[in-house]
Input
Amino acid sequence: MAASAKQLKKYRRYRDVMTDVLKRGAAVYKNKDGSEQLVIKSPYTINYVHSYASDTRFFLGLAQNRLYGSECKGCNYVFATPRSHCMFCGEPTEWKRLSTKGKVHSWTTCEFGGEEFLKETPYNLALVEFEGADSLFMARLKECTVRDIYVGMPVEARFAKKPEYLVRDIWVVPSGKKPVKRTARKAVKAKRR
Amino acid sequence: MVSGGLTKFAKAHPEMDFRYMVKNAYDYAMKDVPSLEKKDIDGSRISYFSDHFTRQLKAASMVQDYLGLNPKGSMRIEWGGATGGEAFQAGFEAVASGRMNVCLVAGFETMSRVQTWKGNEFIALASDTNFDYPIGGFYSGYYALMVTRHIYEYMRKSRFAHVKDEREAQRLAIKEASRILSMVSVKNHLNAMHNPYAQYPKKLTVDDVLRAEMISYPLTREMICTMSDGAAVCVLASEEEAFRLTDNPVLIKGVGCGTDTMRLADRPFGEVPLLKHESREDYEGLDYPGVHSFRAGRAASLEAYERAGIEDPAKELDFIELHDAYASSEVQTYEDMGLCKYGEGYNFVESGAPFLKGMDYGFPTRNAGQIPINPSGGLIACGHPVGATGLMQAVFALWQLQGTVKKHFGDSTLQLEGAKRGAIHSHAGTGSSVTVSILEGVN
Output
């Protein structure tokens, strides 16, 4: 509910206006030039009905612990991130099951992010060279930190036990890492807090 | 180009909506050329990047309406971060094709309407939403992925080639490159101290930049531009019309545009498209572009240089206003634009070439003034209201080439003496699209 005109608070700092507007629905900004501006909250939420269209097999594959890329039979180019048509010759590609072992091509550790992912920071992103593929694949790199990662580091894919049918159903970890048990992971999280 | 106008770029302009901001910039541009009247304008090209930020579709139509330009023709231009640069070239095309004698190009963005992290999310929706966004992808992360590889290719393999331990060599390379990227941030923030339109002018040290909050390793907050509210306007005219309106127009000598794949993961590993002063042997064994370089920036430069008759840009350009959304992308862009060869970007910074002469940056800048890059302060210090940014560069370049910086800034420090030819460079997400335009003084 928006506050009534009498209850509206006035602020000299725009940051304070934003905070109050998001909490109470409206506020007034006292501008440096002496003018005043009414600022209101304007919410916007939506659920899209989204088809994966010709990328469907890739996402269904993740739910079966399988990584699918696509291959152009004309160029013999293997796309680790699938495309239904070859970007070089334009021919339709064929699905190809890929190795889940690879190397880090490049990486970063995100300490900040979009609103949806802020609670997950810090997290690592990596571009991965999967064995036998010609192009790269972007994924979360888990179970290691900024101190451990380097270009060329061997990694292998892991798949979500319960698929969300999102690309994050697959991620990579340093090769040879034993699967972290659920209880152990919880303990690590608790310790971090 | 006969005139330009800007609003001051700011975190928020609650006293002006997007139409009012454009009107401010428009009034300034009209006033700067007294003989120019509204009836002279044949139509417009209007740019803004995100309908998410405006939450008002067809906002460009509302600008056309507010400026009182109905029923003249108009078109909205959107192309991610390069929106402003694309709009500039669309205006150029409208005039060069003979469709218009005078074209108004206006751009704006109002990014203060959501909190920064929501803004990051909106901008991240300009990456592949099936494959890149759902893993927590966002733009600072993508640019960090690119510079990590750039550092590996060009710093690890050169200055630290002698270090045997791979991890240690990469650590040292990142540390060394971060120091050099910080010098770029120091430069742009300090230049902006003399630009009244800039959002974040300040005197920083390399240590300040390195110690700022880490956003996406190895990029710190001071190496990254911020979100802004702002508007910019350019008036373009045919040669005949330009000289009727003013005795001090600037010639748009050549334009170029290039593109690349939306997903970083799809970037191929091929050969460098060569500029005239490069040879195939320079790049033996280099897989290009991969994710270390912007192939779109190279393609745009090739086209623009060809049309402008430029063979060695570092010698034939007097300054460049380029798209430094990240200190890293400024260094990568030196190489794409051929100011130095691929792999020499870090050395180029240390040589001092892109710095202004006579400024004290707090470290030696031996070749300062050779080819000043972002004399205005660039995106890092001026701000980045996306749809206005590429046009802001055009306005700064116009004033630079007219020799009117003092008139517009009230400070002549940034006026480059004898600047005859400059380039502006606008760049969309991870280099998925880049424009380069070459401008020349005619007096």
